[in-house]
Amino acid sequence: MRESDIQEFQLNLQCCRSLKKLDLSDCKQLRSTPNFNGSLSLEHLSLGGCSSLTEIHPSIGNLSRLIKLYMRGCEKLTYLPSSICQLISLEVLFIPHCSSIKKLPDNLGDMKSLRFLYASYTGIKQLPRSIEMLRNLERLKVGGRKLEAKKSIYGRGVHQIQYSMPTFVSDLRLKYCNLSEADIPKDIGSLSSLEYLDLSGNSFYSLPFDFSKLRLLKVLSLNDCENLQTLPSVSNLENLRTLQIKNCQRLVKITELDNLPCIEQINMIDCSSLHNPFNEGFFSAPALSFPSRKNQLMVRHLDMVRHLDMVRLLDMMQLDLEIFLECKEIPEWCRNQVTASSMCLTMPTHNNDEYNFLGMVLWFVIDSLDAAPYPCHRISIAHKETVIVPWRYSLHEAFDGHRDIAYIRLLMASNERFDGEMIKGGERIEAWSEEVTVKKIGIHLLYLDQHGNVISLPGDVDHSYSKYPKRVSTGLSTPPY
To answer: What stretches pass through the bilayer (predicted)?
Structure first.
């Protein structure tokens, strides 16, 4: 029945008592659902893309075995029948882009088995208080998108969430909801199972909770929070991998950024009031840099192999830590730097009993408008074959017209790009890019001394060195690797 032109469902479902899956997706002319009486074995119902659907038969509440209900993009549907709350086995309720739905049924909390509630890009402005009764809820997504939120001073968001969040939520996304401090659930800071938190595009000036109890948090996204002025400490979030605070133009202070052994990506583009928070101590912190970070990577490596997650495994092996920052200068603590598009550095000679090479910080100041969509940088160590290091995101998608930005990459000596090379001192390092205009380059070498401290040693910069890479066309549509 999928993608058919039917306006009404004629089949008597009482003749389909063993039916487990009914897919009416993209039936653009369908105006109402069938009477579900008699189809008590139904487990999976798909109504996504039924753009003319205006009514769901109340008998849907009799589907006691229904597990998944998909209704994405039912644009003319204005309400969900209250009987839907009788679906005691329902685990997934998927209603994004149902733009005419203004509220959820008051008795939503009766759906005791509900684990995933996706209601993004709807007209819902307030969640029912009974949501705190959904003790099995793991993922909650509501709110709009950036362009929609700016159409009105009030946006299209959810307001006044003045009650407790379900304890076991692991994925919470309240994006572009125009939430103030008073609207944000105060107990978010107590959601010990939370792994993904996205509060992008809201109107709060500060967060009314801290992150100290969110030990499992992996992704924190606060993009486009244009009123945000201070960010609580994210120190000791030992599982945090991604921190996104792009376009927080009033952000002036980040309390602490340390002890982040799993951090992979930080984006602070268009935070024009924020001073560079990355001092030498950030990269010298043992928890960030090295042996604990290496141990964390090994644990994740084994876990991915165990679950045959090879895509994620390859991504992890290619990525150490990358940072995007609104910054035109390389800080003075970065020992070796040039104002040029390429750099050559000879590493210091040292006694391996005194110093153990850990890795390096590469700091590029680039022109983001003069770049291929998928930039990389090149690095050659000890005259080995040039290694191409891809950047994670397309510059054309990420930076909305900003020109000079800093791209910072922490490369660990344990990374496969060093190809098992034992760094003994005196090796030659060359760095450049062929996909983006580089204005300045810095290389900060990191070592572990015999007392267990992370320190930096200066190298010998060849100021006469120049490499003139041929710039590629900015019209690339696929990565150059």
So the answer is: none
Please tell me whether residues 76 and 214 are part of one structural domain: no
3-class SS of residue 317: helix
pLDDT for residue 148 = 45
Please state the φ and ψ torsions of residue 380, each to the nearest 5 degrees: -130, 130
Q: How many other C-beta atoms are found inside a 10 Å radius of the C-beta of residue 303?
A: 12
Q: Tell me, yes or no, whether 49 lies in a domain.
A: yes
Give CA–CA dist 54/242, Å, rounded.
40
Q: Which of 275, 303, 333 is the last residue of a domain?
A: 275
CA distance linking residue 111 with residue 96, whole number of Å: 19
How many structural domains are present in the chain? 3
- pTM, to two decimals: 0.84
Tell me the pLDDT band of 443, cut-offs 50, 70 and 90: very high
CB of 438 closer than 8 Å to CB of 432? yes
Domain that holds residue 74: 1-149+164-174
Task: Report phi then psi at 244, rounded to 5.
Answer: -115, 115
Q: Sorting pLDDT into bands at 50, 70 and 90, what band is 111?
A: very high
User: Measured between alpha carbons, how far is 425 from 349 in angstroms, rounded to an integer?
Assistant: 4
Kindly state whether residue 480 falls inside one of the protein's structural domains. Answer: no
The CATH number for 50's domain is 3.80.10.10
Residue 388 pLDDT grade (very low, low, confident, very high; cuts 50, 70, 90): confident
Residue 156 lies in a domain: no
Q: What is the mean pLDDT of residues 298-307?
A: 42
361 assigned to some structural domain: yes
Which residues have C-beta within 8 Å of that of residue 481, sequence separation ≥ 6?
374, 376, 388, 390
Q: CB of 374 within 8 A of CB of 435?
A: yes
Q: Are residues 6 and 143 in the same domain?
A: yes
Residue 391, number of CB atoms within 10 A of its CB: 22
Q: Are residues 6 and 142 in the same domain?
A: yes
